[in-house]
């Protein structure tokens, strides 16, 4: 199994623009007031790894996928455009048809040699997703960058970088699903829906919730929460045993809570303990909650814009650390329960009234769950990926991903980014809460199972 430090050579082809395969409208289309908030003005990376398929023998994945991209862009033509910014920082897509970036590459390594390094935080992202000069900007740059890297075993890596203002993870998967259907020659199952006005501010705008997730950051003297010069980027695997142990900490009537809820409660508590905050400091957890399927929101099938909010659970650090796990769980459930039409409209109104601010990061931890997004359903002809999801964490934000480990267990992999000294304390707290036996007897075992 390859160490994350082992290097291998990658030969990159020249980056090219893939344009829609047919004519598309030339028009300006406004993003929603949820889309263009400051916190989504970044490039989000995901990666998928596919094994060799005898059915696709003799076919080059880059050629197959590039064909599917060009055809799918006829339907998703705004993705081939460029962003402009108008007064009040309003973003608009110029549907110019200029295209998306595509890179073809060959790597002298096999999936077997890569081993667990395919998981977040993937240490090979610089090789598997070329940082094309001049493409990183939010305005006036390609909205998507894809790289297909063929491996010596016949499998390949498919890496993607998306401008997060144009779509969320569900929207990206919806687009890639169509790419796969076209590549395989099957019927298209879902056509795109724009309708960004669904998530626009009201007229006149009015903030009706206390949106602590957008509170202005106040100065704090605690160095542990501010010193991010030396960061540790680690991943933790939570299989059935770890989740069952976490549930055993709860009263019987709460044990049917979702995996997302119990895992988020655990991570929030362990992370807060590791940070060593003053007991009276206020800490928060902001779960990304989708608007799709929520009563009153009526998000149509095919909508590929950002359709979520992240209501914030709040607690004093001391109370969170000293209380049983059910305390954190209750706060998360309460925060999630706020999500609905009024809450989303209040967020959109806040964006217009307050200049589209970034979410709060100080003493806040944001968590996104991609386990049900559908990355494992993206099939370009080579079947399901053996891993599909986020490439890693970003400061203050973790993304949950699906994975089956070497023991055949299905579970959740969570990348986390913390200062090195904080990460050591976090691991200690995590071992304590996920272990069925005293820490001294189980520390090494849990470390090996959890850290990938």
UniProtKB/TrEMBL annotation:
It holds the Pfam family Transferase. Keywords: Transferase. GO terms for molecular function: transferase activity. InterPro entries: CAT-like_dom_sf, Plant_acyltransferase. It comes from the Eukaryota. The keyword Transmembrane does not apply. Belongs to the plant acyltransferase family. This is Methanol O-anthraniloyltransferase. It comes from Glycine soja (Wild soybean).
């Amino acid at each position: 199994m390859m160490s994350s430090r082992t290097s291998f050579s990658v030969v990159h082809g020249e980056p090219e623009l893939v344009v829609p395969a047919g004519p598309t409208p030339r028009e300006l289309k406004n993003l929603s007031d949820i889309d263009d908030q400051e916190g989504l003005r970044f490039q989000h990376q995901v990666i998928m790894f596919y094994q060799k398929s005898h059915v696709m023998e003799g076919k080059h994945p880059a050629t197959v996928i590039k064909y599917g991209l060009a055809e799918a862009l006829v339907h998703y033509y705004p993705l081939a455009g460029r962003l402009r910014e108008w007064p009040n920082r309003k973003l608009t897509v110029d549907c110019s048809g200029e295209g998306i970036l595509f890179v073809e590459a060959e790597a002298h390594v096999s999936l077997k040699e890569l081993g667990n390094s395919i998981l977040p935080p993937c240490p090979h992202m610089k090789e598997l997703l070329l940082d094309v000069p001049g493409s990183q900007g939010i305005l006036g740059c390609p909205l998507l960058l894809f790289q297909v890297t063929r491996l010596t075993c016949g499998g390949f890596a498919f890496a993607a970088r998306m401008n997060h203002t144009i779509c969320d993870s569900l929207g990206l998967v919806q687009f890639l699903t169509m790419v796969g259907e076209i590549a395989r020659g099957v019927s298209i199952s879902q056509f795109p829906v724009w309708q960004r006005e669904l998530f626009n501010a009201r007229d006149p705008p009015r903030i009706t919730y206390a949106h602590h997730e957008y509170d202005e950051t106040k100065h704090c003297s605690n160095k542990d929460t501010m010193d991010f010069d030396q960061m540790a980027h680690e991943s933790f695997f939570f299989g059935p045993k770890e989740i069952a142990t976490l549930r055993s900490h709860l009263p019987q009537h709460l044990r049917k809570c979702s995996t997302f809820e119990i895992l988020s409660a655990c991570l929030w508590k362990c992370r807060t303990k590791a940070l060593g905050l003053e007991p009276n400091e206020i800490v928060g957890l902001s779960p990304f909650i989708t608007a799709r399927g929520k009563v009153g929101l009526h998000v149509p099938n095919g909508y590929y814009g950002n359709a979520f909010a992240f209501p914030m659970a709040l607690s004093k650090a001391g109370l969170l650390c000293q209380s049983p796990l059910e305390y954190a769980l209750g706060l998360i459930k309460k925060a999630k329960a706020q999500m609905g039409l009024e809450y989303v409209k209040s967020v959109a109104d806040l964006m217009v009234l307050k200049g589209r601010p970034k979410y709060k990061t100080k003493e806040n931890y944001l968590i996104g769950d991609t386990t049900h997004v559908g990355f494992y359903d993206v099939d370009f002809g080579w079947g399901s990926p053996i891993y599909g999801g986020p490439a890693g964490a970003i400061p203050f934000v973790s993304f949950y991903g699906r994975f089956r480990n070497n023991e055949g267990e299905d579970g959740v992999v969570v990348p986390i980014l913390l200062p090195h000294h904080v990460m050591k304390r976090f691991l200690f707290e995590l071992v304590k809460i996920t272990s069925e036996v005293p820490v001294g007897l189980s520390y090494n075992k849990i470390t090996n199972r959890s850290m990938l």
